[in-house]
Amino acid sequence: MLGVVWYLVSNTLANLEARRIASGFAFLWREAGFEIGEAAFQRYSASDTYLKALAVGLANTFKASLIGIVLATVLGTAIGLFLVSRNRLLKTVSRAYVEFMRNVPLLVQLFFWYVTITEALPPPREALQPLPGVFLSNRGIFFPLPGSVPVLDGFNFSGGLAITPEFAALLIGLVTYTAGFIAEIVRAGVLSVPRGQFEAAYALGLTRRLAMRYVVLPQALRVIVPPMTSQYLNLIKNSSLAVAIGYPDLVSIANTTVNQTGQAIEGIAIIMAVYLTISLAVSALMNWYNARLK
Amino acid sequence: MNKVFSAVLALVIFFLAWKFIDWAFVHAVWQPDSKACRAASGACWGFIAEKHRFILFGTYPYEQHWRPALASVFLILLWFLSAWRIFWRWWLAVLWLAGLSVIAVLMWGGLFGLPYVENERWGGLILTLLLSTFGIALAFPLSILLALGRRSDMPVIQALCVGFIELVRGVPLISVLFMASVMLPLFLPAGVSIDKLLRAQLALIFFAAAYLAEVVRGGLQAIPRHQYEAADALGLTYWQKTGTVILPQALRIAVPPLVNTIIGFFKDTSLVAIIGLFDLLQTIKVSLTDPAWTGFGTEAYLFAALVYFLFCFAMSAYSRRLERVR
């Protein structure tokens, strides 16, 4: 075992030497020299360091994951409740949605949303306006903010809240895909509550909606939380597919860094360390929450 | 209230379905004619008609396309046969070995007058099917060892298995693929190189093994304690006990979740497109870069979704049936 490790390490050192690739993390403090399309919560320019660029990537990953988790939970829970509703049409439509989402690779869905946004939507000059002040164009989606309304300025909009096509595609893809899995978890959770609980709630005079809200869902949560945790973790890990559609998440920036510096081992180590930390932190948080539920 | 809601919902669905049918069928163009496509208001299925050879077979030599086509049919047939419980006999393994040998001869050639085709030129559907098949076939035995190791009494083995499983499950697949495509060449001695396809395949095997190991562990945990004790009382050794008493029962319990993991893995093989392998998704993506045919991405990815859906839906329907039968 040790011999094998030693053999691999010595090979690696010889290869790095032969290819004149530096090792160590000193590159983090050098100038990155590449622009990043969007930076969540901070300012970034090409003259900043690689460390700063990676921090921007991490912030972008967090932004996509957090918004994605919130929206996927809302959409997934709604569809999960539709799956157990008594309205047959609603049930059939939700079932079709879940089957489609779960049986098509996320990467295909991301590519689909990305080309649909960039090819099917009109250019900013002819942007669609579904609601006053909201514009859909192939350069992104624009929402009005209090005190700042998007206005056409040359070739693109300025002002308001702008969502780039890359972020929009990633978010729509992640949310609709994960919601399909969350819906099944919610359905299984509701079905795990014994029928008697519903009947007892009806006997007390509660309506179906109230029985669901105050009697069934709190009990279903115990079954729902553990698999939901792994869906949240999946969503965070899946946000790394951003690299395929050009959203500058951590993996995408680390990949650019590796291509520029050649320091593959360090770059991949950073990605893995960050995701492992996130995984462990989320599991710990959800274990704590789960323990509190019991 | 419920009736009003149903009526509104039915109207909305009807409207959307009508819009979709109008786009996808009524005003669609089916001939491979990009000018007609650009003039039409509907979908351009002519893109798929024009590019179907490249999408299905990648850069495989054109006049040899019957070989990957036949290989794909054989592979799908093998999977189909393996789905039936009555075929779960020892000779199924022999059948697989024979089938895979035939597929290897078909794909590589160099025998029986078939021209040799190096695996850099393999692509399209068969690549997706081969990556999934070998990924699962080689990951499965590895996953059993990992699951047994995780429950072992030997602390070093247990720590190694837990560490491997949790490490792989904690990071995204794309980082494992990057590792295989960029880092693996650094580990090898000078002059030795493994081609891109094999590197991606290795990454997929390790990735699948970690996930399958957790499913197998679930099966192992479902075996009652007295089964172990009874086997011990008979004086069986560890491997006899595991091989003849525990594993046959544990794997049987684990079949439905195993199928679900396999579906997830089949979908995940699409990620090799990111590291530039010509799988089904990558051939579609590359087809879209043809200047005459840019702008039909929606149709192209709907087609990709349909192909993946057919395979995955068949597998999920199978998994549901297994759960009902049990």
Distance, first to last CA of chain A: 44 Å
How do the strands line up in the largest sheet of chain A?
1-2-3-6
- CATH topology descriptor of the largest domain in chain B: MetI-like fold
Find the CATH superfamily of the largest domain in chain B: MetI-like
What's the CATH class label of chain A? Mainly Alpha
DSSP strand tally of chain B: 0
Write down the overall geometry of chain B. Answer: globular
The average pLDDT of chain A is 86
Proportion in β-strands of chain B: under 5%
> For the residues shown, what is the average pLDDT of chain B?
85
Structural class by sheet pairing and helices of chain A? alpha+beta
Tally of contiguous helical segments of chain A: 10
Shape of chain A: globular
Largest sheet of chain A: 4 strands, antiparallel
Explained architecture:
- The complex is a heterodimer of chains A (294) and B (326).
- Chain A has 294 residues and is α+β, with helices and mostly antiparallel strands.
- Chain A has a single domain (37-293), classed as MetI-like (MetI-like fold), CATH 1.10.3720.
- In chain A, 66% of the residues lie in helices and 7% in strands.
- Chain A has ten helices and six strands.
- With 326 residues, chain B is mainly α.
- Chain B has two domains: 63-117, no CATH class; 123-326, MetI-like (MetI-like fold, Orthogonal Bundle), CATH 1.10.3720.10.
- Chain B has helices at residues 2-26, 34-39, 46-57, 66-82, 90-108, 125-150, 155-170, 173-187, 196-221, 225-233, 238-268, 280-287, 297-325.
- The longest helix of chain B has 31 residues, at 238-268.
- The model of chain B has no long low-confidence stretch (mean pLDDT 85).
